[in-house]
Amino acid sequence: MKEMAGQARAEGRIIGLVPTMGALHEGHASLIVRAKRECSPVIASIFVNPKQFGPNEDFSKYPRTFESDVEKLQHAGVDVLFAPEAAEIYPKDFSTHVQVDGLSDRLEGRSRPGHFRGVATVVMKLLQIVQPNLTYFGRKDAQQARIIGQMARDLNLDSEIVVCPIVREADGLALSSRNVYLNPEERKAATVLYQALNAAKQELSGGVRDALHLQTSLRRKLSGEKLAAVDYAEIVDAESFEPVVRVSRACYVLLAVFIGKTRLIDNLYVVPKEPGSDEFVFQL
Amino acid sequence: MKEMAGQARAEGRIIGLVPTMGALHEGHASLIVRAKRECSPVIASIFVNPKQFGPNEDFSKYPRTFESDVEKLQHAGVDVLFAPEAAEIYPKDFSTHVQVDGLSDRLEGRSRPGHFRGVATVVMKLLQIVQPNLTYFGRKDAQQARIIGQMARDLNLDSEIVVCPIVREADGLALSSRNVYLNPEERKAATVLYQALNAAKQELSGGVRDALHLQTSLRRKLSGEKLAAVDYAEIVDAESFEPVVRVSRACYVLLAVFIGKTRLIDNLYVVPKEPGSDEFVFQL
Fold it and tell me: How far is it between the farthest Cα atoms of chain B?
C-alpha cells in the first residue's frame, strides 16, 4: 500500500482516502462519490479497529460483510481497497498511541473510554501508510471528525480532513452500520433521534437560543419513546465540544441514545449564516 | 519548511534530519557528518522543546547559544536550519500527544515523568514537517532513540531512525549540552561515569555475565566519587529496556548520575559478536 501510494504521489496525483470499518452503506457511498470528484486514485480502507472498541462493546459482533463491501466499492469506482489484518496493523509489541486531550474526554469519549485514542491511533497509521491528500469522514461522527482534524493540525499532517453530510433513510434515521442490530420495533422507534433533532431545529428557527430550554425539549421528545434511553443530549460548541449556555456561534446538537441495546448517535449542525450573525443555517 | 521538503522529495532527493535542542557540540557535529555522507539536503532543527522538560527541570536555564550554533551548522555544511518558535510548534489550543507505552515508563521515564511523551510528540511533528528519509540521533540517549524507533515502526512513519556513536572528551566524559553546568571540580568528578562503564566493560570482557554482580561493581565504583549520586545503574535488554538477570543478548549498561545538581547519563552498548554468541563486542 505504501509503495503504491508513494508512486501515486511521485506522479503528482491527488490521493483520496475513505477510511471505513466495512459494513458499508449509502453514507460510505456518499464519501466515495465526493472523493471520486476530487481525487484519483480513491482508496477505501476496511479495518474493524479493535482499539476503538471498549471491553464491553460490540467488537466481536460488529457487522462484517466483506464480500458485499467489495462489490459496493467496485460498483462505486474505488480504485484501491486497503484491507489489512489486525496483526499487520498491531504487531505483537505494538505500543504507541496518539491521544487528543480534552476533546477526547467528553461525550462519546466519556461514554466510551479509550475510544478516541483508538480512533486517532488507527487513523494516524492509515494516513502514514496511504499518504492521502484528502481524507473523508461522515458528519454523523461529528466528534470523531473534529478530533481527527485537531490531530492533523497539531501533528502537522499533510492530509486535509473533509467532513461530509449525514445520509438518512426516508424516515430520517441516520445511516449506520449498527442499524442492522435493530429489530423491526426498535427500527421504528429509532426515528425518534431524527424527530428530536428536527424539533430542535424548528425551535432554533423560531428564535430559541437558550441551550437548557432546547435540551429540555430534546429530552422530553426522546422520553416519549419508551424504547429509547438517553445517554446524552447536549448543545456544544462546534470547536471545543464544550456545552454552551446560549446558541450564539457554530454549535452541534448532539444525541446518543440507546434503542433497546443498540446505541445510536446523531446530530444537528447549527452555523451562523454570516460570521457573527444571530441568524443560523442548519445541517441535519 | 514543509514546502521546501516537499519540493526536495518531489525531486527524489534524500532528506536527512538532525533534530537538536541547540547548544551544539561535537556529538551533534558527528551526526551532521554522518547525515552529509548519506543525504542531500541535510536539515538541522533547533528547538528547545518545553514539553520534554518536567516542572522541576532546567527548561528556562537550558543553554541557548543560537549565534554560535548557526556558525557551527554553516561550518558543518548543513543545508537548512529549521528553528521554529514554541508558539508555532505548540499553538494555543494544541492538544495532541504521542505516547509510546512501556518503554517510556522506565529509567529516564520514571525519573522524568512525561519526558518521553514530550520527545515523541515533538519528533513526530518534526518528521511530518521535514519528511526526512533518514533521521539521526545520538546513542548517548539510548532510550530516546529506542522509543523513537518504536514510534516510527508502530505509526508506519517513512523515516529511518539512525543511531550514531557517543562522542567523548579526551578523558571519556560523554559530550552533552548539560556539561556546561559543571564547575571545574564537578567536571573532573563527572568522568566517573565513563570509568564505571569502562570497568563494567572489563568485567564483561573477562567473562562476567551476572547483572547483579555488574551492577554492584558499578555502584561501588560510582560511590567512590563523593560528588556523585546515582539515580540508576542498570543492565537492560536493548529492545525492551527491561532489567536482565544475565547478559546473554544485546544489552545496555545504563547510568544516570547526579554530579552536584547536574544530572548526567551515559551508557555502554553490549552486543553479541554473532547472533546467539556468548562473545560480545562493546560500544562505549
Answer: 57
Task: Give the nearest chain A residue to B9 (CA atoms).
Answer: A10
Please provide the average confidence, as pLDDT, over all residues in chain A. 97
**With contacts defined as CB-CB under 8 Å, which chain A residues touch B10?**
10, 12
**From B10, which residue of chain A is nearest by alpha-carbon distance?**
A10
b/e sequence A197-206, b meaning 16+ C-beta within 10 Å:
bbbbbebbee
Chain B contact present for A190, CB below 8 A: no
- pTM for this entry: 0.96
Nearest partner of A264 among A85, A58, A90, judged by Cα: A58
Cα angle for residues A86, A90, A95 (degrees, 5° grid)? 155
Q: Is B95 within 8 Å of A154 when comparing Cβ atoms?
A: yes
What residues does B243 pair with on adjacent strands?
Answer: B236
The CA distance from A117 to A94, in Å, is: 14
Domains and CATH numbers, chain B: 2-164 (3.40.50.620), 177-283 (3.30.1300.10)
pLDDT digits (tens, 9 = 90+) for A234-258: 999 999 999 999 999 999 999 999 9
CA distance B158 to A205: 50
Contact status, residue A68 vs residue A75, Cβ threshold 8 Å = no
Structural contact between residues B172 and B191, judged by C-beta atoms closer than 8 angstroms: yes
